[in-house]
């Protein structure tokens, strides 16, 4: 991962193209050395391989009904017990906004953005944090392919990051009220730092497994995301900079629930996430990303609404 020297060096990041993953299923950067590890998590769509919205947890299908538009948002409370980065429940607030639309029965498009709406007084981070977008294409009733990209601001250091990720997902049903969501994919992230001409990049295989219970008006889920780095560079300090990349394995846990009152086309949801992302005592293992860049817990509470034709599950 990368060691970084000095204070707030200006950075820019360009995305490498991600190769297509195959499956049977669907940090603060301070004046110290740091490493990047795991998929950059600054945008919800790029955090893992799970479906990019809670509404999909309540049905066996990946896509919205044809012609529907879904718009939603959530407030995220970010907490941490990490030394030198202790955050209480209301210290940091992120606002995530997103929309998705089904185009016929063959593709779904989704976009989103993330804003920092509350931060400690000692911070001076930009309000806009990240944006993401992509498409989801089903193959039959149980398989789908996703291609998505994201980009945003680095945390505590001027600069940008970008990421592209592709994956295949499956959603096998094991009963009327139970189903799995599985995924395997591939992501590439690239950073270009103004004061270091070397290219910085990380290539990873990412996997997701989730169990979903419920249908129609209520569903709950439990899932894990796993990332395995397969290549990165540079792998040694340069002559003029101590920065280098040496990624390690990442593992996240997500627990959530969604309520969708019959015929209302509204979803109310809550998601609790535990993010395992390095150790601030070893800053080389953390990410220069606020959302997911170091060990933290996230509580998201949100709402979304579907416009257009009534969903068959709510008729």
Question: Please, could you describe this protein's structure?
Answer:
By secondary structure, the chain is mainly beta. It has a domain of 208 residues. The chain starts with 10 loop residues before the first strand and ends in an 8-residue tail after the last strand.
Output the keywords.
315 residues; mainly beta; twelve-stranded antiparallel beta barrel
Structural class: mainly beta
Strand order of the largest sheet: 2-3-4-5-6-7-9-10-11-12-13-14
Q: Using only CA atoms, what is the Rg?
A: 19 Å
From the N-terminal CA to the C-terminal CA, the straight-line distance is: 51 Å
Taken as a percent bin, the fraction of beta residues is over 45%
Summarize the main sheet. 12 strands, antiparallel, barrel
Strand segment tally: 14
**Separate helix tally:** 1
> What letter string, H or E per element, gives the SSE order?
EHEEEEEEEEEEEEE
Mean pLDDT: 77
Short description:
With 315 residues, this protein is mainly beta.
Which helices and strands appear, and what pairs or packs with what?
Layout: E1 11-12, H1 44-47, E2 69-80, E3 87-103, E4 107-118, E5 128-139, E6 143-153, E7 160-170, E8 173-175, E9 178-193, E10 196-215, E11 218-233, E12 250-259, E13 266-276, E14 296-307
Antiparallel strand pairs: 1-9, 2-3, 2-14, 3-4, 4-5, 5-6, 6-7, 7-9, 8-9, 9-10, 10-11, 11-12, 12-13, 13-14
């Amino acid at each position: 991962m990368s060691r970084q020297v000095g204070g707030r060096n200006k950075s820019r990041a360009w995305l490498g193209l991600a190769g297509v993953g195959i499956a049977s299923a669907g940090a603060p950067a301070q004046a110290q050395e740091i490493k990047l590890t795991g998929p950059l998590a600054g945008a919800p769509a790029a955090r893992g391989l799970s479906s990019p919205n809670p509404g999909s947890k309540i049905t066996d299908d990946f896509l919205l009904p044809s012609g529907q538009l879904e718009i939603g948002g959530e407030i995220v409370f970010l907490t941490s017990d990490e030394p030198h980065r202790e955050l209480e429940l209301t210290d940091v607030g992120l606002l995530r906004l997103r929309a998705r639309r089904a185009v016929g029965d063959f593709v779904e498009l989704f976009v989103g953005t993330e804003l920092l709406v509350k931060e400690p007084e000692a911070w001076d981070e930009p309000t806009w944090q990240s944006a993401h977008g992509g498409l989801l294409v089903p193959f039959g009733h149980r398989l789908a392919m996703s291609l998505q990209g994201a980009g945003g601001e680095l945390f505590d250091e001027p600069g940008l990051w970008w990421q592209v990720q592709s994956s295949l997902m499956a959603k096998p049903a094991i009963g009327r009220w139970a189903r799995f969501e599985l995924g395997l994919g591939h992501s590439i992230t690239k950073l270009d730092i103004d004061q270091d001409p070397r290219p910085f990049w990380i290539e990873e295989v990412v996997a997701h497994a989730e169990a979903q219970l419920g249908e129609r008006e209520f569903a709950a889920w439990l899932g894990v995301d796993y990332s395995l780095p397969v290549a990165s560079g540079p792998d040694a300090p340069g002559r003029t900079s101590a920065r280098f990349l040496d990624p390690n394995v990442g593992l996240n846990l997500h627990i959530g629930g969604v309520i969708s009152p019959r015929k209302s086309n509204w979803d109310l949801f809550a998601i609790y996430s535990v993010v395992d992302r390095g150790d601030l005592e070893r800053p080389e293992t953390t990410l220069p990303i606020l959302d997911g860049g170091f060990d933290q817990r996230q509580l998201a509470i949100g709402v979304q609404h579907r416009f257009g034709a009534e969903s068959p599950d709510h008729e």
